[in-house]
From TrEMBL:
This is ABC transporter ATP-binding protein. GO terms for molecular function: ATP binding. Keywords: ATP-binding, Nucleotide-binding, Transport. Residues 7-244 form the ABC transporter domain. The keyword ATP-binding applies. Gene3D superfamilies: P-loop containing nucleotide triphosphate hydrolases. PROSITE patterns: ABC_TRANSPORTER_1, ABC_TRANSPORTER_2. SMART domains: AAA. It holds the Pfam family ABC_tran.
Length: 254
């Protein structure tokens, strides 16, 4: 039986022009992500990790190349169809949380379902809220929460609809070690128990060790594709690319 692909990108190129200068954020990335797998995307700052996530998720259009979510090629979709596809199949956790200030925690978490006209699965929503430790803050507004708490709300919002694919950009960057471990265990369990697919950008080798696979980007290209590496192997790979960055990521002050 062939492996079902949740996400695929082919020869993805993304160039930006800013202040008269051209930057090649992605220089031709090919990658396939099987359904029910958890992939960590790593690499030095500026290597193209966020751009890969954004273009693979259909939040940004590539300069050239193609991206698929499930069997659907994103470049063939109108903006409306793309928005519909994202709302029904994709969950996002952004670096900047992107919570709606005017809504409560509970309303933020169920917003994607209301937007896509799906009835929330109350039991699952309650479980997700509990597992990110936000059960006692449901009626707060984002401005009344710490950065780590806002990130946990963003994670609950991404998982509440049981999307087929979750794209997460540094989901544990703002969390303390204990909360980060709980969130990573939750991400791991939705892959193992519900066959959801996660693609997560992280700088942290410990966070990446929860994944089934680690892709390392450098200068807009995949330079390493490791199946189930341990923390020390990941740290060594990063150190070989960019020694200072790897030391800081591993929590060691340079
Ligand atoms: N909107 C934009 N306009 C111009 N250049 C951009 C834009 N977004 C990203 N870039 C550039 O593209 C390159 C890749 O950026 P990207 O954010 O994908 O890297 P990253 O690996 O996620 O970095 P970090 O780890 O610092 O978040 C960088 O050189 C960045 O400056």
């Amino acid at each position: 039986m062939s492996v079902q692909l949740a996400v695929r990108v082919e020869q993805l190129v993304r160039r930006y022009e800013a202040g008269g200068q051209h930057v090649t954020a992605l220089a031709g990335v090919d990658a396939a992500f099987a359904r029910g797998t958890f992939t960590a995307v790593m690499g030095p700052s500026g290597s193209g990790k966020s751009t890969l996530l954004q273009t693979a998720a259909g939040l940004d259009r590539p300069t050239s190349g193609r991206a698929w979510i499930g069997g659907t090629e994103l470049s063939k979709l109108s903006e409306t169809a793309l928005t519909r596809l994202r709302r029904s199949k994709v969950g996002f956790v952004f670096q900047a949380f992107n919570l709606v200030d005017a809504l409560t925690v509970e309303e933020n978490i169920t917003l994607p379902m209301r937007l896509s006209g799906t009835r929330p699965d109350r039991r699952w929503v309650a479980e997700v809220v509990e597992r990110v430790g936000m059960g006692d803050r449901l009626h707060h507004r984002p401005a009344q929460l710490s950065g780590g708490q806002q990130q946990r709300v963003a994670i609950a919002r991404a998982l509440a609809m049981r999307p087929e694919v979750v794209f997460a950009d540094e989901p544990t960057g703002a969390l303390d070690g204990t909360t980060a471990a709980e969130v990573l265990a939750l991400l791991r369990s939705i892959v193992d128990e519900q066959q959801q697919t996660i693609i997560m950008v992280t700088h942290d080798p410990l966070a990446a060790s929860y994944a089934d696979r680690v892709l390392v980007l450098a200068d807009g290209r995949i330079v390493t594709d490791l199946p189930q590496p341990g923390v020390s192997r990941i740290a060594a790979e990063l150190a070989s690319l960019h020694p200072k960055e790897a030391r800081v990521s591993a929590g060691v002050r340079a």
